[in-house]
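Q: Structure for this?
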Amino acid sequence: MPTPKPKPKPKLAVIKLASCDGCQLSLLDCEDELLAVAGALDIAYFPEASSRLLKGPYDVTLVEGSVTTAADRERLAALRRESRLLITIGACATSGGIQALRNFQSYPELARSVYAHPEYLDSLATSSGVAEHIPVDYELRGCPVDKSQLLEVLIAALHGRAPRLPRHSVCLECKRRGVVCVTVAHGTPCLGPVTQTGCGALCPRFSRGCFGCFGPSDTPRVQALAPVLASVGATDTDVARLYGTFNVGAPAFGDEHRVRLPVVE
Amino acid sequence: MTTTRTLSVELLTRVEGEGSLHIVLRGDVAESVELRIFEPPRFFEGFLRGRSALETPDITARICGICPVAYQMSACGAVEDALGITVSDEIRSLRRLLYAGEWLESHLLHIFFLHAPDFLGYSDALAMAGDHPERVRAALRMKKAGNALVTAVGGREIHPINVKVGGFFRAPEREAVRSLAPELAWLRDEMASCIDWLASFEYPSLSTDHELVALRHETDYPYCEGRVVSSRGLDIAVTEYEDVFEEQQVSRSTALHSVIRERGGYVCGPLARLSLNQDHLRPAARDALKRSGLKLPCDNPFRSILARAVEVIQAADEAAALCARYEPPAACAVAVPLAAGVGRAATEAPRGLLFHRYELDDSGSLKSAKIVPPTSQNQKSIEDDLRVLAPELARLPEAEARVLAEHAIRNYDPCISCSTHFLELRIERQ
């Protein structure tokens, strides 16, 4: 009996927009699993890791980075067409990243503050997540993403199921792990009650407050957290800064950042 | 009559981030060489204004996922300089340990995953694993040891959370750090056993005349401290950096080019560091340097892979020693009373010098920020190298010329994320 021809491996693409490279590096940081990943998937397009660049269509496309240029915005439709599953990885691709702080400022002034010749730049006035432009199959949170969550997303994609990842808050994660509450015990402002877990309550375990790397949790009760933050002495400026980082482009965090910002005279 | 040929490559690969190269060859002379950096600008220096100085380690880390520790260390150093703060010896040692971990992660990634495939003719390390499975498996294990070190001290391997101005949020636990020592010692020895293999690579010939720039400390191989020195006699305090170096904006690039006033381009990174600090190498690294056959100062950037290998041994050996005698410090951070001031710091990122300058108001909020990443300092020299290689590029068939040009760029392990995006390599021949 002839041996059946082996089924071709699903093709993986890794795409970068405006970002720091950290989320795609997470894939290369899976030292124990990398060879197995390469055994299960054909890494067809991953410029950071390989000079072998195969054309689409791709079975799984991971997109890192936010949309900040007209060229990238225009590239997305084609990318969607050639990707069976399109998954965003990290805070930039999901909510615009820290560069979404520009959405809360005067863009021309910001550009002038860094570049003597802003006219040379091809840059949009806003930074946005990929799902604002094209349909996305799954959004993996984190700044950076968590390695084991990234592997879970890839395994789920290979098996045609939804990734099984928690949506609850960092606060609940602390309770489960028996981590002492940094706000109650030390008076440290913490976004744990409104931030999605994925880090394993990393910052509270290091005696610092959560600063929101994984973005808003399911039904984040930002208004309820406000008096708690105030009770430990956080001023409006402190709160604006706390929400104004890597997930400031997520509405729950961005709205609170905006209302707490000092009024510019 | 001159023959006209056009060569094009769509995307430069195996570098961190994306950008483009444009070479116009007339005969065997490069009429123009432009490394184009198209990374969408993210305006860090703009949105840092008005932020608390205490936020700078976390915010600037996001400039680069490959070398976040470098950004955190330069940020802490600049704020501490502005406020006149000095940290304890224990904190200094923990910072060296964390920085060593980042060098290990970054250098091992570059040596085995980004650069070695060029010498051996593979598209990537996974293809290389087909013929050299043990080599790639050992490389993964070595890289994992570097990641474990950053995780133990910093909390996680990418964008560590444990660093703050003045020190650390929490002292790593004694056993968590001490238990790393055997694997780091193994890493050092494993890398030492790779030196002969690396030295046996066929190195393209290239002779350059770059001024080499690095930090130099009185006693130690430089991470966070020292004066800025060069192979042409420059020797200044970090506070004088801006008197000597300046940034220029060019139309083709969102990265600002850095030059030495009235002298032009220069090179920072492993070859420069090693050339200017070889007397501070630990015995294991000195031995590896000797066996590598690398002559210092080295004028052939293709040999930078050997300098990285020596630095891996240096970092692993020092880290193993620091881990083996680690005791958690009683105080893991010094107090940071905020005040107005101007502060500067330079540290040695894996790719070279990383300079930060901040101006603080009396509440400790930033009035201005200036950041000069290593790749924008090396960019001009990368272009110069391609100009020197022009006769060779002109002689080679298209595919090989493309491979050689990309290889020459990878010599600098350019971190285009620190400054760039879409690298499209196009060679035009006229």
